[in-house]
Structure to design on (96 residues):
């Protein structure tokens, strides 16, 4: 029977990659310790090092792109609900 593919959280990957970058233990030792293939650790380490500069990128939005989109969506919804409320309240005033 096939073994189910393990899925690791980004936090776990970062932890293992950071330990690999520190080089206090060999990749083989980290592999045994965390139960992850040595090749996988090499890949995570490479990605970690390649994307480390993104942390200090000045052009990046502080709140993140996804958060900015969500904020825009919520502001649009608030505007729609405000217009709807005002429209309905005017209709109720006419009936009274």
């Amino acid at each position: 029977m096939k073994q189910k593919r393990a899925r690791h959280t980004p936090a776990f990957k970062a932890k293992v990659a950071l330990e690999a970058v520190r080089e206090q233990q060999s990749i083989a030792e980290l592999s045994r310790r965390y139960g992850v293939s040595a090749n996988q650790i090499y890949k995570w380490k490479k990605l970690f090092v390649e994307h480390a500069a993104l942390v200090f990128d000045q052009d990046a939005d502080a709140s993140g792109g996804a958060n900015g989109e969500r904020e825009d969506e919520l502001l649009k919804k608030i505007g729609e609900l405000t217009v709807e409320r005002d429209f309905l309240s005017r209709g109720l005033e006419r009936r009274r």
About this structure: The chain has four helices and no strands. The helical segments are 10-22, 27-34, 38-50, 65-95. Residues 61-96 form one domain. The mean pLDDT is 86.
